[in-house]
Structure formats: structure tokens, C-alpha cells
């Protein structure tokens, strides 16, 4: 096993929080994954993981290392997937769940172009804002913002979205520009007057 295998094993253990689950995702034995982590720790001369009976987490020293190598592993896997897509047509049903604004503004308008590129893939798109149990809800992919809630899931960063607070010009003209969140509560008392003709 080479250095890339060791790094990939480390990334999967951190993402799944378990040597057993990491071994399953890599199609390797648990002993092999343990050996790969030990090799990487010996080469770097640092303890990479804190292990308890319930979970495995990166040490303080290895957390930044994980962030960097996880991006590399994901890029390698994406490169492999691109080659495989060229040699075998993608087909089948993919069940996706996304939050409403993302589905309405980004995913649904992009479906026509997606189906042109991948005519043999069918998308079942669910729209919800609730937490999704991938196995229980029979969902293949969930698109959400924020951090990973379930450490057994494999997550990919796909975009950065800028968030902001916006108001109509007519609202600002009538209620003034709020300088503190409490100003919104005060202005809310006057909303019915703003809506009258």
C-alpha cells in the first residue's frame, strides 16, 4: 500500500468516525485500514486520531492536515469518476433531497441541461428542510448547507453561497434602515400600515 492509500484511509476514518465503516467504504479489511493509519502516523511522526469505544476523531495536530488532504482525496476520486464516466455510460435512478430555495432557484432550472448530458439517469427530487435519514428515507444524496451532522456520511463541498438580509426600497423609505435586529421588531408593528394601498 502506498502513501495515497494511507491518506485515503485516514480521510475515510475521520469522515465516518469509525475504522469499520471506513474499511467498508474502501472495500478493505479493518486490519488493513488500521495498518495504513499506523504507517501514516509513523511517516508523519504524529498521532492522527483519538480513539474511544464510541468514536474516532482527529487530534488537534491532525485536524488542519485532514482539511487539506480531504480536498486532495476528493479531487482524485472526482478525476477517477470522470474517467469512468467516459468509459461507461451513467444510468439509473438517483434520489436527491434539497432545501426549497436551492431546488427552486438552482436545481430545477438545471435539470434540462443535466438530462441532455446524462439521458440514462432519472432524478427523483425531494424538497424539504428537515433532517433526512439517508437509509430510512431511501435517499442517495442530500444537499444542505452547514457542517456535517452525521459523521457516517461522506460530504462534498460543492459551492459557497453568500447570505444577506434584504429589504424592499419602499420598506426602507417607510420604516428607515434598521441598525439593530430589535429595530425590525419595532417596524413589524407597523407592517399592516405599509401594506395598505
Short recap of the structure:
With 197 residues, the chain is mainly alpha-helical.
Characterization of the model:
The N and C termini lie far apart (about 75 Å). With about 200 residues, this protein is mainly α. The protein is extended, with a radius of gyration of 23 Å. About 50% of the residues lie in helices and about 10% in strands.
What's the count of strands? Answer: 5
Q: How far apart lie the N and C ends? A: 74 Å
Compressed to H and E, one letter per element, the order equals HHHEEHEHEEHHH
Number of domains: 3
Pairing-aware structural class of the strands and helices? mainly alpha
CATH superfamily descriptor of the largest domain: Winged helix-like DNA-binding domain superfamily/Winged helix DNA-binding domain
> What does the main sheet amount to?
3 strands, parallel
Please identify, by name, the CATH architecture of the largest domain. Orthogonal Bundle
CATH topology of the largest domain: Arc Repressor Mutant, subunit A
Task: Describe the protein's topology.
Blueprint: H1 3-16, H2 19-26, H3 30-44, E1 49-51, E2 56-58, H4 60-87, E3 92-98, H5 100-117, E4 121-127, E5 141-143, H6 169-175, H7 181-188, H8 191-195
Parallel strand pairs: 3-4, 3-5
Antiparallel strand pairs: 1-2
What tags apply to this protein structure?
197 residues; mainly alpha; Arc Repressor Mutant, subunit A; D-Maltodextrin-Binding Protein, domain 2; 3 domains; three-stranded parallel sheet; two-stranded antiparallel sheet; 8 helices; disordered C terminus
Amino acid at each position: 500500500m502506498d502513501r495515497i492509500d494511507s491518506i485515503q484511509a485516514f480521510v475515510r476514518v475521520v469522515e465516518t468516525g469509525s475504522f469499520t465503516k471506513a474499511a467498508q467504504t474502501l472495500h478493505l479489511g479493518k486490519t488493513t485500514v488500521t495498518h495504513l493509519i499506523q504507517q501514516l502516523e509513523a511517516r508523519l511522526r504524529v498521532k492522527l486520531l483519538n480513539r474511544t469505544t464510541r468514536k474516532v476523531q482527529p487530534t488537534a495536530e491532525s485536524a488542519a492536515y485532514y482539511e487539506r488532504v480531504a480536498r486532495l482525496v476528493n479531487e482524485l476520486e472526482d478525476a477517477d469518476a470522470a474517467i469512468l464516466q467516459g468509459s461507461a455510460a451513467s444510468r439509473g435512478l438517483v434520489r436527491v433531497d434539497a432545501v426549497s430555495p436551492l431546488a427552486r432557484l438552482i436545481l430545477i432550472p438545471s435539470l434540462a441541461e443535466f438530462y441532455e448530458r446524462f439521458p440514462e439517469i432519472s432524478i427523483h427530487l425531494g424538497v424539504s428542510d428537515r433532517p433526512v435519514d439517508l437509509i430510512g428515507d431511501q435517499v442517495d444524496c442530500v444537499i444542505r448547507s452547514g457542517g456535517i451532522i452525521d459523521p457516517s456520511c461522506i460530504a462534498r463541498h460543492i459551492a459557497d453561497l453568500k447570505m444577506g438580509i434584504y429589504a424592499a426600497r419602499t420598506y426602507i423609505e417607510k420604516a428607515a434602515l434598521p441598525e439593530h435586529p430589535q429595530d425590525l421588531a419595532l417596524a413589524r408593528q407597523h407592517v399592516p400600515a405599509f401594506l395598505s394601498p
